[in-house]
Each structure stands twice: as structure tokens, then as C-alpha cells.
Specification:
Blueprint (H helix, E strand, L loop, with lengths): L13 E4 L8 E3 L4 E5 L5 E7 L3 E7 L4 E7 L8 H6 L5 H14 L8 E6 L9 H4 L1 H15 L4 E6 L5 E6 L5 E5 L2 E5 L1
Parallel strand pairs: 1-3, 2-4, 7-8
Antiparallel strand pairs: 3-6, 4-9, 5-6, 5-7, 9-10, 10-11
Length: about 180
């Protein structure tokens, strides 16, 4: 996940925002998507993380923030979906996510990385026996570590669904479950 040359950030399964000036915006990220912004007024949000992982990044100096919501650790389980929606998987989504952030000015040395999700939600049939949440968390940690990116904070594991809001202006992350704020990073 090295930094690409400067230029427009284009990415499959996600989007970037580099508008010169516009009003505050709330960017919703679905499963298998990501958003990256260099607009301080933006808030990037994802809802109902169960076993999925939200990887949140932020660079204070560049005022660049991003959020990736991936579903599974490895694209090998569904190569067709990996081609059409690479952000669904940790191993294909994370490189694209970081390339888009680098294109907007994020510097790897200043990057703050935080992880949210990876729960084992009950009532999902055999999903708990597969430990999808734990496998997702291990995949994210491994890919980030191999690329020299340290994780600053986590709100992971457990058995509750979480929603995440990343405020690009200051890098604050609000983690909620239902209507309750359960963690601020």
C-alpha cells in the first residue's frame, strides 16, 4: 500500500470527494464500500457493523479522512464479487482504500488508523461457529501491520452491532449502538 503519484483518485467499490468548496456533507458507506474525503465539513458514516470491520483513517495535517466497510477477510471465497466490488474483502479493499486516500494527500507516516466491528452477533445460524468477526479483525490487523501501519485504537469484538461516524475536521469517531454513544475515539 504505497502512495501513488498525485492525481485524481478513482476507485471501484468506493468514492472520493475532492470538491473545492461545498456545504457540510454526510457520506453513507454501505457494506463493501469506502469513502475518502479532504473536506473538513464532511462526516463519513456506516451503519450496523456486525462481524464486518470499519477501517477508519485520518491525517491531521492533510485533513483527509476515510472509512472502509469490509465484509470478509479474503477475496478468494468469491473472485467474481472481488472483481465487481473489491472493497467487500480486506485483502482487495484495503489497498484501493489507501490509494484513494494517498491521492487526496494522506501521508502514511501521519496516518491514524482505528478499527471498529468484528462482533460475533447471535441469531445468525452458523455464522458464530465460523468466527467471521475474529477472522475479519485478524485480516485487517495483518494487512495493516505488513504495510507498516499501526492501529491507534479499536472498538472490536463483543456481540453488539455498531454504527460509526468519522468527522473529517478533527478525526473524531463516534461509535454508537442503537441510539447510545458507546465509544468516542
Amino acid at each position: 500500500m504505497s502512495a501513488p503519484s498525485q492525481g485524481a483518485a478513482a476507485c471501484a467499490g468506493g468514492f472520493t470527494e475532492a470538491a473545492a468548496s461545498r456545504a457540510a456533507s454526510r457520506r453513507i458507506v454501505g457494506i463493501g464500500e469506502f469513502a475518502v474525503s479532504n473536506e473538513a465539513a464532511d462526516t463519513i458514516v456506516t451503519h450496523a457493523l456486525g462481524s464486518c470491520i470499519a477501517v477508519c483513517i485520518w491525517d491531521k495535517s492533510a485533513v483527509v479522512g476515510g472509512l472502509l466497510h469490509f465484509l470478509l477477510p479474503d477475496a478468494a471465497v468469491n473472485p467474481e464479487r472481488a472483481r465487481s466490488q473489491p472493497a467487500t474483502f480486506a485483502n482487495t479493499g484495503l489497498p484501493l482504500f489507501f490509494q484513494a486516500a494517498y491521492a487526496l494527500g494522506l501521508d502514511k507516516k501521519r496516518c491514524r488508523v482505528r478499527l471498529i466491528g468484528g462482533a460475533e452477533i447471535g441469531g445468525l445460524g452458523g455464522a458464530n461457529s465460523l468466527n467471521v468477526g475474529k477472522r475479519n479483525l485478524l485480516a485487517a490487523r495483518n494487512i495493516l501491520w505488513r504495510n507498516g501501519l499501526l492501529i491507534e485504537a479499536e472498538a472490536t469484538g463483543g456481540s453488539i452491532p455498531r454504527s460509526v461516524a468519522l468527522h473529517v475536521s478533527g478525526g473524531r469517531i463516534d461509535v454508537t449502538s442503537g441510539r447510545d454513544l458507546i465509544h468516542e475515539m
